[in-house]
Amino acid sequence: MAKSLRINEQIRISPIFLIDHENEKRGIVPTRDAQLLARDLGLDLVEVAPMERPPVCRIMDYGKHKYNQKKRQKQSTAHAIVMKEIRLRPKTDDHDRMIKLKHAREFLQKGHKVQFTMLFRGRERYLRDYAREKFDDVLRELGDTIKIERPPAQDGRRMTMVVAPATAGATAGSGPKATGQSPAPSPRVAPQSSAPSGTQPTAQPAPQHAGQPTTQPTAQPVERLSGVAEGA
């Protein structure tokens, strides 16, 4: 809402279309009644749509609304991405270049993009390869903290390059490396018996051939304890 909105007694036109503090539409009411209702609630009557007929007014805490509006505006401005420019010359010495790189790092840490501009004068515009080497030095100095948004390109008497902060991502080579060899086959394991541990496997009797007499098991004598009478 604009700062020039009329509130409370500043609203002179009547009637108005009223929306109360619970966002309920009350319809068309006299302005004086709406002002008294807002006063009884300890709130403000704000003309939110003055160009409508009748004007639309809302009951709210206008001071709190202005505070929240400024807070949202400040947050949106803080997250805005700004393009910063760093100007270089083919004859820029190492000391000046390091100072400019320091400023570029500060811009990148704040989340801004940086455009490096190489300006040419006279015959310097023919030093295209030399300018690219200077840009390569800049990229080497900034290292992995950036990503190239626009590679170096010459436009008349200047060459530009745009870089941005590198986004967090997966580290290269963190996954398994692909090789041209197929994986070695796993060694074959002999199947184990499903019998519980401690149990000896039962021996199977040998098959009997035709015509061979069957041997009957011999009864073993039963030993008796000494001192126990027979027939007990």
Quantity of strands, as a count = 8
CATH class of the domain at 83-165: Alpha Beta
List low-confidence stretches.
Answer: 168-187, 189-203, 209-232
Structural class: alpha/beta
Element-level helix/strand string: EEHEEHEHEHEE
Query: CATH topology of the domain at 83-165, which one?
Result: Translation Initiation Factor IF3
Helix content: 25-40%
Count of DSSP-assigned helices = 4
The best one-word shape is: rod-shaped
Q: How is the main sheet built?
A: 4 strands, mixed
Rg, nearest Å: 46 Å
Q: First CA to last CA: what distance? A: 115 Å
CATH architecture of the domain at 83-165: 2-Layer Sandwich
Instruction: Report the average pLDDT across residues.
Output: 75
What is the topology, as strand order, of the major beta sheet? 2-1-4-3
Structure commentary:
The protein has 232 residues and is α/β, with parallel strands linked by helices. Among the domains are: 8-76, Translation initiation factor 3 (IF-3), N-terminal domain (Ubiquitin-like (UB roll), Roll), CATH 3.10.20; 83-165, Translation initiation factor 3 (IF-3), C-terminal domain (Translation Initiation Factor IF3), CATH 3.30.110.10. It has 4 helices and 8 strands. It has helices spanning 31-40, 62-78, 94-109, 128-142, and strands at residues 16-19, 25-29, 44-49, 56-60, 83-88, 113-119, 146-155, 158-165. It has a 4-stranded mixed β-sheet, covered by helices on one side. The model is unreliable at 168-187, 189-203 and 209-232 (pLDDT under 50).
Sum this structure up briefly.
Among the domains are: 8-76, Translation initiation factor 3 (IF-3), N-terminal domain (Ubiquitin-like (UB roll), Roll); 83-165, 2-Layer Sandwich (Translation Initiation Factor IF3), CATH 3.30.110. Helices cover 25% and strands 22% of the residues.
